[in-house]
Every structure is written in C-alpha cells, then in structure tokens.
Amino acid sequence: MVGYAFMGAAHSQAWRTAHRFFDLPLTPEMTALVGRDEQRVQAAAERMGWGSVETDWRRLIERDDIDLIDICTPGDTHREIAVAALAAGKHVLCEKPLANTVAEAEEMAAAAEAAAQRGVFAMCGFTYRRTPALALARRFVQEGRLGQIRHVRAQYLQDWLSDADAPLTWRLDKDKAGSGALGDIGAHSIDLAQWLTGQRIAGVSALMHTFVTERPVGGDFVGLGGHGATGQDAARGPVTVDDATAFTARFDGGAIGVFEATRFALGRKNAVRIEINGTAGSLAFDFEESNVLQWFDAADAADAQGFRRIIVTEPVHPYVGNWWPAGHGLGYEHGFTHQVVDLVTAIAAGEQPRPSFADALQVQRVLAAIEASAENSSAWQSTTD
After folding, report:
1. Distance between CA atoms of 147 and 140, rounded to whole angstroms?
2. Which pTM was predicted?
C-alpha cells in the first residue's frame, strides 16, 4: 500500500479484517507499506500491521512478493503509480477520484483495459457502494420497485473547513488534489447516483465557489482540518480549489438531478444523502444514519402511505450476514472491508471488479464537465464534449 494517512488507515483496517469475517478465496498478506519518511512509515507499519516498509513506491514494482498495489495517495500521483503497477503485472486498487484530469484518467483506463486481457485487474475505491443500505437501494431499483426513475437529488455535506483559520492542507491545493469539494466528496455522489439508477449523467449546469481564499500554512492538524497558526506573523497561503459546488444534471435514461457538495455545511459531519423518486416508489438515505434506508411504496393503501424506515441489519441484507446479530449496526470502516471482499473475490474468479477504471473515467468526465460549466457562467455542458 502506498500512503498511510486517513485512507491508508481505513484500507489497512480492511485488509486486516476481511478474511477474518468473510470466507475469501485468497488470503491478503499485508506485505509492504510505502511512505517518504522512513521513521513515520515504519511507525505506521507497526501500528497498522504491515510486514515491511519502503520509501519509494517503485520498489513495489520490482518486488516479486507483491501481487497487488493499493494507492492511497493524493490524486497527482495516481496515474504514474497505477500505470507502472499494471504494466508490471500487479493488480491495482486506487482511491477516488481516479485522477486529477480526464487525460490522466483515460491513460489509466487504457492501461487497465490492456492489463485485464492478461488477467491483471484494477478497481477504483468508491466505497459507499459497499454500504449495506445503499446496496439494498440498488437492489430495489434493479428489481423495478421504483418504476421509471424521474428525480435524483444528492448532497454530500461536511463542515471541517467552516473555520476560516483551518490550516492549508494538500486537499486545498489544486495541483495535488485536482479539485476541492467537487472531487473529494462530490465524486462520491456522482458515482452513487449513476450506480444506483443505472443511468449516466449526460450533461450538467454548475457553479463552484471558494469562500476562504487564503489559509494558515502551519498549525495544529487534527483529522482532515485542525487549527491554523494565527497572529500578525503567521504565514497564509492560497486556496486553489472550490469550497462548494452545486449543479443540475440530466441522465441518459431521462431522469433529472440536483447535486450539492460542500465542506462548509456547519453541523454536518459526513452527510452523504441521496433521494431517488420513481413512478412506483421513492427511497432516501443519509450516511449519518447509515444503517437505515427510507422507502416509500406507491402501491400502499392511501390510508397507510408514507416513508418507512428499513433497519438494514438483517442477515438477508447485503454483506450483513457475516457480521453481528440483527440490530447491531455497521459503520464507516465496514465499507472498506466489503471493498476488499469484492476485490479479492473478483480477482480469484478472473473477473473485472467494479467500479472499474472505465467506470471511474466516466465520473472524471462528469467532474470535468462541471468545472467547464462553472467556468462558463453555468452554461450547459455535455459530459462527452
């Protein structure tokens, strides 16, 4: 695995746990962890259970005891690592968004397609797909319970940047991150909306905004943000990404959508919300109540209609049967474990794991269309232009 911060810790927990709760056809071995600082990466490896360390990811390409490379680094490094790994015959798991540009994502998708012909596979880490309530929602759509899909409304709301003196991190640097709220969290909403509905976003009209254009360079880093250095002599640097993005969309299956992504929604910690309305029913989900799916069935009698709360903790629900007794809910980390389960199972079967790099490329094209629209006074922008 390359990288050992927030995503590295989440992925490590998943690699440690998956084969202990699920009957996997292959057993993951946590062979090597990569980071530039030898002391810090060694400490992280010992804490998270990795067998050895490297300070250059290229060493992983050379090692014959490595079968898969997990990329948990900022977006500006994804293309180089993934393309080299696939060329060397290593399977790849890459965090989202796939890259910082469409051109980079296209190169990665082409490399993945060529590698798949040799039985080497790549997957992008849109982990919210593995939330049991959302997997159940997709099942409902596929079974036709919603009828024809008409509306999609999706929000991803966080507040960790609400403090104007939160410190400047790599997530606020366009060269490293590609974009701000758009790519960091909006990409999840885009992937979920398309995956749940089975429809692709064909065009968008968007606006993007940066509320705080400069932030402290140093300070106390806590979680994703923290408390920046203040005072007359405290250095500040430019924020070069969006703080918030909003857009409307048309889907190729006829649905219309409204999307919002922000890291300034004070009081909202990780509100991944989506609601889908069809001709026969509706469903709604909020990750801050992650074990609940809201479901409305238009076939109910008029005197009994209304949204019902489905507690998605029964053994019949996706993934849940391998965990705890009914009612003992799952959390954020379980999605990463389910990701490992699905990836390892697909590799063992010689099948393409999903979402593929091609799927992630399509999300990248939507991200690019949103930026292009926002730069052109919210003019309508096709995702295929």
Report:
1. 10
2. 0.96
